[in-house]
Design a protein that fits this description.
With 403 residues, the protein is α+β, with helices and mostly antiparallel strands. The chain is built from six helices and 23 strands. The longest helix has 15 residues.
């Protein structure tokens, strides 16, 4: 197998040079409206030369010097083909560290009044996993008294915070559990932000200006990208009348009258542990901004990694949930010829020396990533702005100017 891939079991390298195998890795989720899911790796080994594996062994996988998976083996299956002699087919399934959150109980003694980020910190620290916390530091969650507390799994605990405050979570290829507020998509694992710095001033390389301030998009040109894009637009995720419960049996309502007129009233009730009116109002407004109008979905695109050059390979191997990508050279008959989206997840498929990476991409507006005033080009004048532009459609300066 020519693919530069390596595996280790409990820290010891596995020799796969003379083993025939297929490997599929799943990371993140398939779509922005899908629930989070733990990463997984399925390894199918043919013949008796495969390594001996046991349940709960720790499997790590690397490709092109980049981590692709880290987690524990959960299932092993051995079947046979042929009879003279029979040949073993061993199928191994491993689950990422996020799955372990379903085995830990939290919240039995209640919670103090704290921010969403602090609540996530409390839950993940109790779970004893390696994690990165990008929860919202500004939304305040009310206290939960011990008398009213209900013990849940850590998974259900952070899932509740994600739903209430607007966030997602996943385990990355290094095995870390990542919780990420939609306003922080791509930033939680980005080494250029202060919260990700772990070294001292004395050992930090470069000067102040060398630290980037925001994530950049990875451009996927047509070379090596195999896609017959399937554009879709549906009413299913549309919300134009949202009520957010907060405080003590209080609610705030936000509506989009134009959307209601065009598509009918589509209501959503979100009960939360958010404490203040301002935070609840912001949460409701974000939902309306993201979901009051139908958005085009590109779905999935596949990349033949084995056909890319070294620079392109390095770039795509670093993509994880939350990364920004730009897809170029889309067919002119579709809604966009260039599409900037957020990676929700991916699948790796290794077979016979070929490596196919399939990306699941969402519209940035689902993650509240519209253009901010501070990001508008200083030289841009009102006369240059497209008169038909609507703010919910503006993701970049190009969208603001229009055709």
């Amino acid at each position: 197998m020519t693919e530069p891939i390596s595996m280790a079991l409990n820290g010891a390298a596995i020799d796969v040079s003379n083993v025939e195998f297929n490997l599929t890795i799943m990371h993140g989720r398939s779509g922005v409206t899908d629930p989070p899911t733990a990463s997984s790796a399925q390894l199918v080994i043919r013949g008796a030369a495969g390594p001996v594996m046991e349940i709960a062994d720790y499997l790590t996988i690397t490709s092109h010097a980049e981590p692709r998976f880290a987690g524990k083996i959960s299932d092993i299956d051995v079947s046979f083909i042929g009879t003279n002699p029979p040949e073993a087919i061993t199928t191994v399934l491993a689950m990422g560290n996020l799955a372990s959150l379903g085995l830990v109980d939290v919240g039995g003694s209640g919670y103090a009044e704290q921010t969403a980020r602090q609540r996530v910190e409390t839950i993940l620290a109790a779970s004893q996993v390696t994690y990165l916390n990008g929860g919202d530091p500004n939304i305040t969650l009310k206290a939960v008294a011990a008398l009213d507390a209900v013990s849940t799994t850590a998974w259900d605990g952070i899932s509740a915070v994600a739903t209430q405050t607007g966030a997602t979570f996943f385990d990355d290829p290094d095995g870390r559990v990542v919780f990420e507020d939609y306003g922080n998509r791509g930033l939680t694992t980005f080494e250029g932000v202060w919260s990700a710095q772990t070294t001292t001033w004395a050992t930090t390389l470069g000067d102040w200006a060398s630290f980037p301030t925001e994530t950049t998009s990875t451009t996927l040109d047509s070379g090596g990208v195999v896609f017959t894009p399937t554009w879709s637009k549906t009413l299913e995720p549309l919300i134009n009348d949202v009520t957010v419960g907060y405080g003590t049996e209080l609610t705030i309502q936000q509506t989009d009258s134009a959307s209601i007129t065009a598509y009918g009233r589509r209501e959503y009730l979100l009960n939360t542990e958010i404490k203040t009116l301002d935070d609840a109002t912001t949460r409701a407004a974000n939902i309306i901004t993201a979901q009051a109008n139908p958005l085009w979905n590109l779905g999935q695109i596949s990349i033949l990694v084995h056909e890319l050059d070294a620079t392109q390979t390095t770039a795509v191997m670093k993509l994880i949930s939350g990364s920004l990508v730009i897809v170029n050279d889309l067919p002119a008959m579709g809604p966009y010829e260039e599409y900037e989206g957020i990676v929700e997840g991916w699948s790796d498929s290794y077979s016979g020396g070929n490596h196919t990476l399939t990306l699941s991409i969402s519209d940035p507006r689902f993650s509240y990533q519209t253009l901010k005033w501070s990001q508008v080009l200083p030289a841009l004048t009102w006369a240059e702005v497209d008169a038909a532009a609507q703010w919910f459609e503006i993701v970049s300066n190009n969208d603001l100017v229009g055709a």
